[in-house]
C-alpha cells in the first residue's frame, strides 16, 4: 500500500471525530510503556521513508480527503467549502508564530 | 506600495524595560531600568501604524519585554483610550500581556475583564521547578506570588494561558507537570525551552539527549491529556505540530519571524525592530543593534527602505534557502527563528539549530509516529487498556 493510501485510510477513519477527536486518538496511541518505544527509535516500517516524503504523503491524503468530501457535497447539492474540517478548519491558515506569544487571532484554535 | 506593502500582524510594545523579578534565564539585559514609554511615543507609533495601512488586516498588540504590570492600570487605561481614538473604524485590534503573574490583584482582574485583555502567565510548573529559575533579585522564589495571581484570575473567571519554560529537570517529569496544571485548573499550556539568547547560554541545550527528552516529554504529556479528556484543552506544541502536518497539499507556510514587519517591536524609547522580537534590546555591531529607526524621528514607511533591513532580510533569506535545500522539515517551519540561528550558530545565514531540532523536528516526528502507529494500536485492541477515546 502506498504511503498516501495508508494515510488516507487512517485519516478517513479519523476525520469524522473532528480536530479534538483526532488529537485525542493520536494522543492515546502512545506506547504502552516507555521502554516499548525508545524516543530515538522509529516506530513503524513507514518510518524508513524520509520525513519530507511522509509529510508530502500526509498532505496528499488530506487533499484527497477534502476532494472526496467536496464531491460528496456537490452530489448532495450542498456546497460547503469552509465547513470541511481539513481544509477550512484544520491546517489553514498556516503560521509560524513567535513562541513567546501564541498570537491567538492567527492560531489554529477554532475548535 | 501595492502588493509589496508590509503587513504588521503582531506589534510587541515595551511599556517599560523594568521587571520586578530576575529570572536566571532572562535574555533582557536592561531589566533593572525603570524608564516608562512616553505617551507621545505611543501616539507616534500607533498613529504611524494606522496611517501606513500596514495593519489593515487586524492587529495583535503584546505589551511585553519588561513586566507590564509594574505600571499602574491608569497607564494602560490612558494608552488603550488613545489607541482606540486613533484606530481606523472597523480595524480589529486586541491587547495582550505576557506577565509573571506576581502583581495580579482584584483591580487587575477587573481591568482585564473590562478590556478583554488576553493574558499569558509565565509559570514553570510546581514550586521546585519554578523557583529554580524564576527568582527575585535577592534570589527568593516567586512561585507563591505567581500562583496567587493565577488563582485570582481563576476566581474572577478570567481566561488565560500559561507559558512554561522547560529545563532538563522538568522535561523528565511530564506527569508532575500535568498534575500541577490539573490541580491549578490550567487548561491552556505552551512550552518554551530554555534557549541561548543574548548573554544567556542555555545549560539545557548542552545536555546530551535533550532532544529525545523533549520528544518523550511531549509524548507522555499528550498521552496523559488524551487519557483525561477535557482537562487540558490546548497544548500549543502538539496543536501546532498537528496543524503543520495535517494540511492540504500546496498550502505554503507563513513564517512571521522571517517576514519584514509581520512582527514589529518597539522599545520604550521608540526604537523599532522586526523579525524575532528578542532581537530588540540586544547588542550587535554587525546589525546596528537591530534598530531600524525610531518612531519619534522617522517615518515608518522609510524604515522599510533602510539598508540595514535589506541586509538583515538578505541574511535571513540566505538561511531560509539553506533550510529549504537541506532540511526535511522545511515545510512545517518555513525556515526557523532568526534569533536562534544568530545566537546558536553565529549567523542568520545558517540552517539547523538545537531549538528547531527540539521544537519543530521532534514535535513533527511525534505526530507522524503516532499517526503511523494508530492502525496497529487499534488493531491490537489496545484501546481498552489505554483509555482510547471512542472516536474511531
Q: Count the beta strands of chain B.
A: 11
| Proportion of residues in β-strands of chain A | under 5%
| Weakly predicted, low-confidence segments of chain A | 40-45, 73-95, 104-111
Rg from Cα of chain B: 21 Å
Mean of all residue-level pLDDT scores of chain A: 63
On the 0 to 100 scale, the average pLDDT of chain B is 91
Tell me the major beta sheet of chain A. none
- What structural category arises from helix and sheet content of chain B? alpha/beta
Task: Name the helicity range of chain B.
Answer: 40-55%
Structural class of chain A: mainly alpha
Oligomer: heterodimer
Distance between the termini of chain B: 51 Å
Q: Judging from the principal axes of the Cα atoms, what is the shape of chain A?
A: globular
Largest interface: A-B, 65 and 87 residues
Largest sheet of chain B: 10 strands, mixed
Number of strands of chain A: 1
> Portion of residues in helices of chain A?
40-55%
Strand content of chain B: 5-15%
Provide a quick synopsis of the model.
The complex is a heterodimer of chains A (111) and B (392). Chain A has 111 residues and is mainly α.
Structural description of this entry:
- The complex is a heterodimer of chains A (111) and B (392).
- In chain A, 49% of the residues lie in helices and 2% in strands.
- Chain A contains 4 helices and 1 strand, in the order H-H-H-H-E.
- Chain A is globular, with a radius of gyration of 16 Å.
- Chain A starts with a helix and ends in a 15-residue tail after the last strand.
- The C terminus of chain A is likely disordered.
- Chain B has 392 residues and is of the alpha/beta class.
- The longest helix of chain B has 26 residues.
- Helices cover 43% and strands 12% of the residues of chain B.
- Chain B contains 15 helices and 11 strands.
- In chain B, helix 1 packs parallel to helix 2, helix 7 crosses helix 8 and helix 8 packs across helix 14.
- At the A-B interface, helix 1, helix 2, helix 3, helix 4 and strand 1 of A face strand 3, helix 8, helix 9, strand 8 and helix 12 of B.
Amino acid at each position: 500500500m502506498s504511503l498516501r493510501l495508508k494515510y488516507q485510510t487512517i485519516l478517513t477513519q479519523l476525520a469524522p471525530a473532528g480536530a479534538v477527536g483526532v488529537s485525542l486518538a493520536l494522543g492515546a496511541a502512545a506506547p504502552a510503556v516507555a521502554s516499548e518505544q525508545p524516543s530515538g527509535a522509529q516506530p513503524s516500517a513507514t518510518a524508513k521513508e524520509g520525513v519530507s516524503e511522509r509529510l508530502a504523503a500526509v498532505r496528499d491524503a488530506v487533499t484527497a480527503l477534502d476532494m472526496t468530501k467536496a464531491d460528496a457535497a456537490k452530489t448532495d447539492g450542498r456546497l460547503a467549502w469552509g465547513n470541511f474540517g481539513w481544509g477550512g478548519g484544520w491546517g489553514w491558515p498556516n503560521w509560524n508564530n513567535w513562541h513567546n506569544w501564541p498570537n491567538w487571532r492567527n492560531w489554529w484554535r477554532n475548535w | 506600495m501595492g502588493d509589496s506593502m508590509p503587513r504588521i500582524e503582531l506589534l510587541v510594545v515595551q511599556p517599560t524595560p523594568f521587571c520586578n523579578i530576575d529570572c536566571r534565564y532572562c535574555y533582557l539585559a536592561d531589566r533593572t531600568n525603570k524608564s516608562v514609554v512616553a505617551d507621545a511615543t505611543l501616539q507616534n507609533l500607533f498613529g504611524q501604524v494606522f496611517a501606513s495601512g500596514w495593519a489593515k488586516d487586524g492587529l495583535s498588540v503584546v505589551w511585553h519585554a519588561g513586566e507590564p504590570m509594574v505600571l499602574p492600570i491608569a497607564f494602560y487605561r490612558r494608552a488603550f483610550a488613545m489607541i482606540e481614538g486613533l484606530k481606523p473604524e472597523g480595524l480589529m485590534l486586541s491587547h495582550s500581556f505576557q506577565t509573571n503573574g506576581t502583581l495580579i490583584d482584584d483591580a487587575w482582574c477587573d481591568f482585564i475583564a473590562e478590556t478583554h485583555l488576553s493574558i499569558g502567565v509565565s509559570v514553570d510548573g510546581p514550586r521546585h521547578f519554578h523557583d529554580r529559575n524564576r527568582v527575585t533579585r535577592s534570589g527568593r522564589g516567586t512561585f507563591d506570588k505567581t500562583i496567587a495571581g493565577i488563582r485570582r484570575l481563576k476566581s474572577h473567571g478570567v481566561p488565560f494561558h500559561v507559558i512554561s519554560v522547560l529545563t532538563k529537570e522538568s522535561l523528565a517529569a511530564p506527569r508532575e507537570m500535568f498534575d500541577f496544571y490539573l490541580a491549578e485548573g490550567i487548561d491552556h499550556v505552551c512550552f518554551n525551552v530554555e534557549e541561548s539568547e543574548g548573554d544567556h547560554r542555555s545549560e539545557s541545550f548542552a545536555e546530551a539527549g535533550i532532544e529525545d527528552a523533549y520528544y518523550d516529554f511531549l509524548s507522555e504529556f499528550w498521552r496523559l491529556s488524551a487519557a483525561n479528556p477535557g482537562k487540558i484543552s490546548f497544548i500549543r506544541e502538539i496543536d501546532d505540530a498537528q496543524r503543520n502536518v495535517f494540511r492540504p497539499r500546496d498550502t505554503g507556510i507563513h513564517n512571521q519571524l522571517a517576514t519584514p514587519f509581520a512582527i514589529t517591536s518597539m522599545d520604550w524609547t521608540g526604537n523599532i525592530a522586526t523579525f524575532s522580537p528578542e532581537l530588540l534590546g540586544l547588542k550587535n555591531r554587525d546589525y546596528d543593534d537591530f534598530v531600524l529607526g525610531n518612531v519619534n524621528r522617522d517615518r515608518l514607511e522609510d524604515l522599510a527602505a533602510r539598508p540595514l533591513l535589506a541586509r538583515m532580510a538578505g541574511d535571513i533569506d540566505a538561511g531560509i534557502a539553506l533550510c529549504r535545500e537541506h532540511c526535511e522539515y522545511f515545510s512545517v517551519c518555513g525556515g526557523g527563528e532568526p534569533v536562534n540561528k544568530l545566537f546558536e550558530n553565529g549567523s542568520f545565514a545558517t540552517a539547523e539549530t538545537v531549538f528547531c531540532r527540539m521544537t519543530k523536528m521532534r514535535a513533527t516526528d511525534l505526530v507522524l509516529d503516532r499517526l503511523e502507529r494508530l492502525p496497529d494500536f487499534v488493531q491490537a485492541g489496545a484501546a481498552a487498556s489505554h483509555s482510547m477515546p471512542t472516536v474511531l
